[in-house]
């Protein structure tokens, strides 16, 4: 089962191009308790906070977008973390590697990986979370051969995913980093198409999803389905014979339960039982879930997938 309101909830954000992803970052900030920047976008955040940043790492025209995000997070009491130190190499002597604080990278040096203090701070934050999403790579412009920070981050996420933390990893580079560190990815949610997720987070309707929604529209009379349609909703995808949902509906009168199954014979049992907080729909949830849930007048609090 995947709870939609697990807290604390943190987003680890890698990659660059903050301007293009500003809407997605605002969406994450509206849902999460903390934003943790680990890639090129961290320099735009630092720059907007007034910290010294190597000019070549500042994204042109991104200062306003970064400042707006910081203010939005402050208004929502959302924590923003950025690397406090970096592994750096000397530009003309790439074999020379040293650690510098993020606000004190000397001229002639370039960051190639997050430093140990940054990893420690991220670890301290993540180990307290119940839900983590990692989207975008821990990668800087010159850092293809340096991945110690990314390795430690992936190892930490693999570890917390074995406990009570729900971890989702998005993007091909992040998924590959996880695969290198751990031979077992059980407990991790892996989504390789990072670009599609970024577009979704921006609020844009993906063409495939839009086509499915148009093909399978649902218009449900929720007042006829439930005695109190304003109660929080629990959706059970793959409800089978419906016994699980019926049992839960009897135990939790304060919740409404909706079962989705390709073929369902549960409605007769529902009517005979006298349950008024349970309902079944014969449908393919892959194509109709959004359409069905979008019209529900109450709050969706839990989705179980059998």
Description:
The structure is a single chain. The protein is α/β, with parallel strands linked by helices and 306 residues long. The protein folds into two domains: 9-211, Phosphoglycerate kinase, N-terminal domain (Rossmann fold, 3-Layer(aba) Sandwich), CATH 3.40.50.1260; 222-305, Vaccinia Virus protein VP39 (Rossmann fold, 3-Layer(aba) Sandwich), CATH 3.40.50. Helices cover 38% and strands 23% of the residues. The protein has helices spanning 18-31, 41-48, 63-75, 116-126, 148-161, 172-181, 194-201, 207-215, 222-225, 243-251, 267-273, 285-294, and strands at 2-3, 9-13, 34-37, 79-81, 85-90, 93-101, 109-114, 131-135, 166-170, 188-191, 233-237, 256-261, 278-282, 300-305. It has a six-stranded parallel sheet with strand order 4-3-2-8-9-10, sandwiched between helices. A five-stranded mixed sheet has the order 1-14-11-12-13, with helices on one face. Helix 1 packs parallel to helix 3 (63-75) and helix 2 crosses helix 3. It is elongated and about 80 Å long. The N and C termini lie close together (8 Å). The mean pLDDT is 84.
Any idea of the CATH class of the largest domain? Alpha Beta
Helix content: 25-40%
Tell me the strand order in the biggest sheet: 4-3-2-8-9-10
What is the CATH third-level topology name of the largest domain? Rossmann fold
Task: Write down the domain tally.
Answer: 2
Count of alpha/pi helices: 12
CATH level-4 homologous superfamily of the largest domain = Phosphoglycerate kinase, N-terminal domain
> How is the main sheet built?
6 strands, parallel
Which sequence of SSEs, written as H and E, runs from N to C? EEHEHHEEEEHEHEHEHHHEHEHEHE
Beta content comes to 15-25%
Query: Could you say which structural class the secondary elements and strand pairing correspond to?
Result: alpha/beta
General shape: elongated
Number of strands: 14
Spatial extent as radius of gyration: 23 Å
Task: Please give the CATH architecture of the largest domain.
Answer: 3-Layer(aba) Sandwich
User: Averaging pLDDT over every residue, what do you get?
Assistant: 84
* Low-pLDDT runs: none
- Ends distance: 8 Å
Cofactor: Mg(2+)
Catalytic activity: guanosine(46) in tRNA + S-adenosyl-L-methionine = N(7)-methylguanosine(46) in tRNA + S-adenosyl-L-homocysteine; (2R)-3-phosphoglycerate + ATP = (2R)-3-phospho-glyceroyl phosphate + ADP
Enzyme class: transferase
Family: Belongs to the phosphoglycerate kinase family.
């Amino acid at each position: 089962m995947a709870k939609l309101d697990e807290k604390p909830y943190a987003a680890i954000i890698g990659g660059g191009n903050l301007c293009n992803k500003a809407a997605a970052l605002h969406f994450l900030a509206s849902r999460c308790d903390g934003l943790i920047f680990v890639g090129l976008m961290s320099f735009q955040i630092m720059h907007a906070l007034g910290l010294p940043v190597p000019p070549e790492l500042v994204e042109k025209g991104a200062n306003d977008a970064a400042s707006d995000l910081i203010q939005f997070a402050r208004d929502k009491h959302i924590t923003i973390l950025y690397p406090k130190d970096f592994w750096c190499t000397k530009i003309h002597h790439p074999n020379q590697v040293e650690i510098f604080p993020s606000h004190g990278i000397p001229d002639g040096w370039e960051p190639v990986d997050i430093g140990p203090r940054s990893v420690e701070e991220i670890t301290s934050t993540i180990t307290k979370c119940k839900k983590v999403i990692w989207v975008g790579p821990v990668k800087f412009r010159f850092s293809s051969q340096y991945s110690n920070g990314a390795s430690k981050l992936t190892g930490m996420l693999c570890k917390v995913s074995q406990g009570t933390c729900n971890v989702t990893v998005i993007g091909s580079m992040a998924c590959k980093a996880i695969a290198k560190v751990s031979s077992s990815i059980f407990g991790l949610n892996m989504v390789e198409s990072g670009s599609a997720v970024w577009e979704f987070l921006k609020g844009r309707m993906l063409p495939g999803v839009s086509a499915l929604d148009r093909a399978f529209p649902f218009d449900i009379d929720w007042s006829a389905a439930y005695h109190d349609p304003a109660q929080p909703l629990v959706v059970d995808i793959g409800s089978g014979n419906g016994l699980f949902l019926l049992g839960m509906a009897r135990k939790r009168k304060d919740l409404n339960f909706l079962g989705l199954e390709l073929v369902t014979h549960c409605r007769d049992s529902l009517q005979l039982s006298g349950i008024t907080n349970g309902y079944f729909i014969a449908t393919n949830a892959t194509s109709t879930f959004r359409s069905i849930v979008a019209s529900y007048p109450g709050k969706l609090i839990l989705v179980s997938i059998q």
